[in-house]
Amino acid sequence: MYLLLTYSTLFTFIVFTHIFQNGAFGEETYLQKKLHTFYAKIEPTVVRIIDRLLRNRFLSGTRPGRFFLKLTGKLLWFLPHGVVIEHEAALRLIDSLPENGTHIAIGPCVCKKSIGVKEEPYVTDMVIMYGAEAYKAADPEEYVYISKEEAKKLLKEFREHNLIHEVFACFKAKKWAFVICNCDPRYCMPTRSQLIAGEGVYPGPLYATVDPEKCRGLDSCGVCYTICKFNAITKDANGKASVDPDKCMGCGLCVYHCPSKARNLTPRTSYDPKFLPIEHTHPTLVHRS
Fold first, then answer.
1. Where are the domains of the chain?
2. Rounded to two decimals, what is the model's pTM?
3. Which of 84, 111, 145, 266 would bridge with 204, disulfide CB 3.0–4.6 Å?
4. DSSP secondary structure, 38-86, as one string
5. CATH number of 207-267: 3.90.870.10, 3.30.70.20, 3.40.190.10, 3.40.605.10?
6. What CA–CA distance (Å, rounded) separates 85 from 274?
7. Do 281 and 167 form a contact (C-beta atoms < 8 A)?
8. Residues 63-121: pLDDT tens digits?
């Protein structure tokens, strides 16, 4: 803490237009960018610590252990937390960004890199807004600026690999959203934490629903059951797929892959966007939230 405070006093408040604010774009301080650059440098260490906690058998395998993990996650509310969004929302977010070339950068998955996993796709960390400059400054060899069209092409490739789009922000403030993570639940620390302890990422504003008339049934098909990483799919009395809206995070992968087109994404009622810049991801839902 002392090191962080000392570091923060070195910088003055010069502004940049790199944060989301009131449906448009606001000013980010030089201090904010430098502090996030500092976090980008120490993030691999943070990830390795979380990985060790999640691998601990007592913490992940017992009720008291999971309670401790959940409580720890809540106490660390100021660190980046994510919200799951569907593919179309990720594309809208990219389209909404300012036009200059320093608002999107791509680099290696921080979680995979930190724990030594080289599995492809590996370069999936899509930092945006002030996050693009922060991570580029922290690791200039690994991160490269990309255009909107390049970003959207990559997002489509990530969807084909069943990676989950998650928007992360600091301090649970939507204006500080800084990255679209494209997460593999096997390695992503926040997603693993969510699956183990119920704390780490939040559901998006949509959830999957099923048309039983079109659904082929889990025994005949089961694609949705195989794809869903949040254990939201069960079999109803007629053998058809059923979705638990409380477990569905709204990634939309089951909708995309359903061979019989039996699934849709439906808005949640009374959804709290928390830190999601919903004006940019789901503009039609702004007045419903």
1. 2-202, 207-267
2. 0.89
3. 84
4. HHHHHHHHHHHHHHHHHH-HHHHHSHHHHHHHHHHHHHTTTS-EEEE--
5. 3.30.70.20
6. 13
7. yes
8. 999 999 888 888 877 778 899 999 999 999 999 998 877 899 999 999 999 999 999 99
Half-sphere exposure of 203 (CA within 13 A, CB side): 24
Band the pLDDT of 288: cuts 50, 70, 90: low
Cα 132 from Cα 27, distance rounded (Å): 15
Report the DSSP beta bridge partners of residue 21. 24
Give the amino acid at 214. Answer: K
Q: At what angle do helices 148-160 and 87-96 cross, to 10 degrees?
A: 170
266 pLDDT above the threshold of 80: yes
What number of helices (H) and strands (E) belong to the chain?
12, 13
Question: Which of these, 4, 1, 19, lies nearest to 175 by C-alpha position?
Answer: 19
- CA distances from residue 31 to 101, 117, 133, 200 in whole angstroms, order as listed: 22, 33, 13, 26
**Contacts of 257 by beta carbon, 8 Å cutoff, 6+ apart:** 162, 223, 224, 227
Q: Which residue has tokens 């004006």?
A: 279
